[in-house]
Amino acid sequence: MDMENTQVQMRKGILEYCILHIISRGEVYATDMLDELTAARMIVVEGTLYPLLTRLKNAGLVEHKWVESKSGPPRKYFKLTPVGENFLQGLTETWSQLVHSTDMITNRSNANAKSVPH
Questions:
Q1: Tell me: the pLDDT tens digits for 50-107?
Q2: Secondary structure (DSSP) of 11-60
Q3: Residue 31 scores a pLDDT above 70
Q4: Residue 43 and residue 100: Cα distance in Å, rounded?
Q5: What whole-number distance in Å separates Cα of residue 56 and Cα of residue 49?
Q6: Considering the domain 3-105 in this protein, what is its CATH number?
Q7: How far apart are CA 100 and CA 40, in angstroms?
Q8: β partners of residue 77
């Protein structure tokens, strides 16, 4: 197995959750999202982010508005819709359950593990 590919797939699996969480803090510009995701080592490129934002918009989870910029073309700012807020709440509950379950499995020592017949 390719370790790097597996790591990339794990990151992709939680990318939507992370993006919705960033947007939940208030209106945000896509470049700022990219910066935060990159700083967190999520390794995202524009070619990944923009199609995902479009899918989230089409699903009614986010909306955007155009804001004039003094230093260039207008910028598109994203925010969660009420449906998106509910969706994020559900994902947050699922994430908490997954973290708890994963910790239970990965922090269990061999001495404490029940013997499983082969």
A1: 999 999 999 999 999 999 988 888 999 999 999 999 999 999 999 999 999 999 999 9
A2: HHHHHHHHHHHHHHTS-EEHHHHHHHHHHTT----HHHHHHHHHHHHHTT
A3: yes
A4: 25
A5: 11
A6: 1.10.10.10
A7: 21
A8: 29, 65
Which tens digit of pLDDT belongs to each residue from 93-118?
999 999 999 999 999 887 665 655 55
Sheet holding 62-69, edge to edge: 28-29, 72-80, 62-69
pTM: 0.82
Task: Point out which residues pair with 72 in neighbouring strands.
Answer: 69
- Within 10 angstroms of residue 57's Cβ, the number of other Cβ atoms is 15
The tokens describing 51, both together, are: 């199609």
